[in-house]
């Protein structure tokens, strides 16, 4: 007999078929689960968050869960390949923002995957200016745009980093139609690239985060690296849950000064635009709904026990558990809002 | 103080263990320090940054040093950097002075290692401080300089530069990464392969393929020659070595270490150039150049001090500019990225504990190397007799683990390993050069971003000349390296044309 | 003069700029190599014939063949027991054994013992180390 790849594959899949009924009958998470995440960094917020959740879940359910930082494209591929519940995914708003901004490799998650429960928020998304900048507030920036001054904002295009920028343009449009043209993007990459763009005077405003940039806001004004927050995009209700001591040498009350309603970037002239980076599960669409239910129940019990919240807060995450159905509705609404913002600024330009 | 918290028994054990494994790898002909690091890389994933580096730096120091064992005992360089060690080491062992030669080599290696480490400690932070002021423009020029230097020092400048550009070209396959500031579109991807090639080829599988798999394929091509049986190894009497051989050799040792360190600092130039330069200089300045090649300890010292001088030197551009100094440090870049740390001008300033831990690990590794090899050299000498048919399959398997686990489980990375294993074999046959290819492959994506962003920000090609005086200096250096290499190749040609 | 050096890069197509430049450079360098080394290139056929004549074809091609087989089987086998790394273990044992035997010159039974032992011990040890101790994903 010729041992080709095909015959072996056939043999292997036959074995897999035989094993199938057992897995199907159990209707719950298998004993060894791989949790892929949309980031390739094992030091980043997605990884930290996912490992907190994975630890809690594996302890609660008595199974093994490995977090693998394979990155968005590979994570979606891995999820596509497996409907047995052996592969799960955790990612954040980038998963649908990438799709809204038309980035390669991002499909509509609400159509192609099952959106699962949310678990936490990273409240840190922020915009900063140099300490000696002529713009000391969002109002200064929007006024400058209105007066025809070009304001350059360093962002990483195509997702979480761009949405606040889109909101700025939108606010400028609401305030003085046409002035959004004066808010221009400087497309950069990582956080250090954005910082460098500011220090090289290639950008007037940069996207950053409370966690990564707070240290620079503590520098004296004559230091070339000194920065200052102008806007924190989080909802006030989110930020209020942060530890009172805040981050670094900036207290929660100080942080609140930069967030809505104190700092207002309007959505439509009445409401403020806000953005919270929420982490949630994504599942293969063909995965047994019983598994989704099992995860929902387990997480409900974990969050009721209250221990996970402490771990999340210790890493400056805001606990944010919503079971699958609520999470799906909430995220769909959120996407609707952002879709409109992005449409408004692109049709009028 | 945080630094002392890092120095745990595990940390020390990893350095010593790494050094030991490195020496073993170095001692086996056909296996290199780079391969040792490549194969052991997956071990570091769960060790954390400092502990992982402790292991890798131990492997690096050990691997470079271990090469002298087969060079002296069998006349076969264990690693390319010990080619010149065979010139005088092997004749010595044939004269029955094997153990003496080994010990001379070990002492010289130690001196070379320590001197280059001092240079690293003093030089890297200063260079990094300076490089912090570099913008996209200067960073792009630095890469251009690295490419021309490495082309200039290749056997053929044209083929060297071609290999470098080929490396860049292949590194650009796939998406123009958004997280680097790109627009997320793909290019150079053949139709139908988007599913796999969207993200391009991952760095570490490429390196493991080029250095691990390719080396084994080359051995397989040659029929995996049997190892050497114990009786071909001539150690000689252990009593004949004494430190008095080093009398009057201080200048030689310091000069050779200095040359090694300097060559290490030049990007992309491996250990063979370091030891060859050190050796030929020692010969030029020696009072008895005629005895070189017939078992002259002076030549042995120059060679070994030179190739170990490389270790510290090669880390200078890595830690201050983010540009690897040789192929082994290229793998270290991978180890850093794995831990989420970007190496570049900000590295030392932002991670002083890691920096101190690295220096400390290098010191310990050198001491461990010396102690181990000096006192247990008879046992290490037996390593050259380990059968390859036992060793190679394990190495192949470790390469697979390394490639698969590097990005947390992507099967295409394993196929990348095979593709570049075959490619590495082919490159040698085509007389292209691996080292410039690697440097091009590593620096390609950054070169692109710096180049494009410079133009996006300034919109004018002249910015590359007018940005700052640093840019001008870099252009002078680039021109100098090109002119220098042309002159060097002329000289080489006339030298080969004249009958010796 | 100033206008000649002016460049505007359209972000939408910026992914093509650098590859094009590098492609042109490669073509130019390739051409230069072709011209300066035309004699060597003309004799490339002989060079490759020599390479293949000297090659140990069984060991070289055998290694490649076994490796391709090994890589192809790992994932399907591993999929039967997801996320346990068993695909790696089950495929590695025969792979290490067969490559070991392939590389051997003297295949008398007594001499194969170390190879068999390695093939059993090494993959198992590595598998245990990576899945249990380091908690990493293997196929």
What does this structure look like?
The complex is a heterotrimer of chains A (349), B (500) and C (139). Mean pLDDT of chain A is 89; it is low at 1-7 and 12-26. Chain A has helices at residues 5-26, 45-61, 72-81, 94-100, 109-112, 138-146, 160-175, 191-199, 210-217, 236-240, 252-256, 289-305, 307-314, 324-347; strands at residues 32-37, 64-68, 87-91, 114-122, 125-130, 151-155, 183-187, 205-209, 227-232, 277-283, 318-322. Chain A is globular, with a radius of gyration of 22 Å. In chain A, strands 2-1-3-10-4-11 form a six-stranded mixed sheet, sandwiched between helices. Chain A has a five-stranded mixed sheet with strand order 7-6-8-5-9, with helices on both faces. Chain A has 14 helices and eleven strands. Chain B has one domain (2-123, 197-425). Chain B contains 22 helices and two strands. Chain B has helices at 2-6, 9-27, 33-40, 49-66, 68-73, 83-94, 98-131, 136-152, 157-171, 194-197, 203-221, 250-265, 271-285, 297-321, 327-338, 347-350, 352-383, 388-406, 411-429, 434-458, 463-466, 469-497; strands at residues 174-175, 186-187. A two-stranded antiparallel sheet of chain B has the order 1-2. With 139 residues, chain C is an all-alpha fold. Chain C folds into two domains: 2-52, no CATH class; 56-133, no CATH class. Chains B and C meet through α9, β2, α11, α18 and α19 of B and α2, α4, α5, α6 and α7 of C.
How does CATH name the architecture of the largest domain in chain A?
3-Layer(aba) Sandwich
The global form of chain A is globular
- So how many helices of chain C? 7
State the helicity of chain C in percent bands. Answer: over 70%
Q: What structural category do the secondary elements of chain C indicate?
A: mainly alpha
Gyration radius of chain A, rounded:
22 Å
Query: Which class of the largest domain in chain A in CATH terms?
Result: Alpha Beta
Q: Give the strand content of chain A.
A: 15-25%
Keywords (chain C): Membrane, Transmembrane, Transmembrane helix
Domain DUF1468 (chain C): 17-139
InterPro entries (chain C): DUF1468
Transmembrane segments (chain C): 16-37, 58-78, 84-103, 115-136
Topology, element by element:
The complex is a heterotrimer of chains A (349), B (500) and C (139).
Chain A: H1 5-26, E1 32-37, H2 45-61, E2 64-68, H3 72-81, E3 87-91, H4 94-100, H5 109-112, E4 114-122, E5 125-130, H6 138-146, E6 151-155, H7 160-175, E7 183-187, H8 191-199, E8 205-209, H9 210-217, E9 227-232, H10 236-240, H11 252-256, E10 277-283, H12 289-305, H13 307-314, E11 318-322, H14 324-347
Helix pairs in contact in A: 2-12, 6-7, 7-14
Chain B: H1 2-6, H2 9-27, H3 33-40, H4 49-66, H5 68-73, H6 83-94, H7 98-131, H8 136-152, H9 157-171, E1 174-175, E2 186-187, H10 194-197, H11 203-221, H12 250-265, H13 271-285, H14 297-321, H15 327-338, H16 347-350, H17 352-383, H18 388-406, H19 411-429, H20 434-458, H21 463-466, H22 469-497
Antiparallel strand pairs in B: 1-2
Helix pairs in contact in B: 2-3, 2-4, 2-17, 3-4, 3-11, 3-15, 4-14, 4-15, 4-17, 6-7, 6-14, 7-12, 7-14, 7-17, 8-9, 8-20, 8-22, 9-20, 11-18, 11-19, 12-13, 12-14, 13-14, 18-19
Chain C: H1 2-5, H2 14-36, H3 38-42, H4 44-54, H5 57-78, H6 86-103, H7 109-133
Helix pairs in contact in C: 5-6, 6-7
